[in-house]
Amino acid sequence: MLILIDDIKLGSKEEFFAYVSTQIEGKEINSIDDLREYLLSTDRETELILSDIDEAEDQKFAEDLKLLLEGVSSTNSNIKFTLM
Fold it and tell me: Which of 2, 12, 48, 78 is deepest in the core (most CB within 10 A)?
């Protein structure tokens, strides 16, 4: 599975979580904790590409998301994270 995340999808937390929920079949993601839990437990190979976060409206959320994805990708070998 490939999930592309850019500054547009980071427009608001609600928009971001709605987008991620559509990408992850059968799983509703409503918070950063839900996303962390899913990514740490999944055995599905998933690549997440994060781009243009310096242009995101909510810089703190974008940075928190980047740190989460870096941490999860180092813990779960099924998760690949790329920052562009």
Answer: 48
